[in-house]
Design goal:
Helix content: under 10%
Structural class: mainly beta
Strand content: 5-15%
Radius of gyration: 16 Å
Shape: extended
Distance between the termini: 39 Å
Low-confidence stretches: none
Largest sheet: 2 strands, antiparallel
Number of strands: 2
Length: 55
Protein backbone atom coordinates (compact mmCIF):
# COMPACT_ATOMS: atom_id res chain seq x y z
CA UNK A 1 0.00 0.00 0.00
CA UNK A 2 1.27 3.51 -0.88
CA UNK A 3 1.34 5.96 2.00
CA UNK A 4 1.37 9.66 1.17
CA UNK A 5 2.67 12.39 3.45
CA UNK A 6 0.55 15.00 1.68
CA UNK A 7 -0.32 17.84 4.03
CA UNK A 8 1.91 16.44 6.75
CA UNK A 9 4.59 18.32 8.64
CA UNK A 10 7.39 19.69 6.50
CA UNK A 11 10.87 20.47 7.67
CA UNK A 12 12.68 22.72 5.22
CA UNK A 13 15.18 23.88 7.82
CA UNK A 14 15.76 27.50 8.78
CA UNK A 15 14.33 30.07 6.39
CA UNK A 16 16.86 32.22 4.59
CA UNK A 17 15.85 35.84 5.11
CA UNK A 18 16.68 38.63 2.67
CA UNK A 19 17.01 42.28 3.74
CA UNK A 20 14.87 44.62 1.66
CA UNK A 21 13.47 48.15 1.80
CA UNK A 22 9.68 48.46 1.82
CA UNK A 23 8.38 49.96 -1.44
CA UNK A 24 5.75 51.95 0.50
CA UNK A 25 7.25 53.35 3.69
CA UNK A 26 10.97 52.90 2.98
CA UNK A 27 11.54 50.93 6.19
CA UNK A 28 14.22 48.21 6.13
CA UNK A 29 12.78 44.74 6.77
CA UNK A 30 13.45 41.08 6.06
CA UNK A 31 11.45 38.74 3.85
CA UNK A 32 11.64 34.90 3.64
CA UNK A 33 12.20 34.92 -0.14
CA UNK A 34 14.49 36.41 -2.78
CA UNK A 35 12.60 39.35 -4.31
CA UNK A 36 12.02 39.45 -8.06
CA UNK A 37 13.67 42.43 -9.73
CA UNK A 38 11.18 45.08 -10.75
CA UNK A 39 8.46 43.93 -8.35
CA UNK A 40 7.58 45.88 -5.19
CA UNK A 41 8.27 44.40 -1.75
CA UNK A 42 6.34 45.47 1.35
CA UNK A 43 6.98 45.25 5.09
CA UNK A 44 4.53 43.48 7.41
CA UNK A 45 2.68 46.72 8.16
CA UNK A 46 2.21 47.77 4.51
CA UNK A 47 1.50 44.34 2.98
CA UNK A 48 -2.20 44.14 4.02
CA UNK A 49 -2.84 47.38 2.08
CA UNK A 50 -1.76 45.67 -1.15
CA UNK A 51 -3.40 42.25 -0.85
CA UNK A 52 -6.40 41.47 -3.03
CA UNK A 53 -9.60 41.02 -1.03
CA UNK A 54 -10.70 37.40 -0.66
CA UNK A 55 -14.21 36.42 -1.69
Amino acid sequence: MFKSNFGGPRNFGPREMTKVVCSDCGKECEVPFKPTEGRPVYCQECLPNHRRPRF
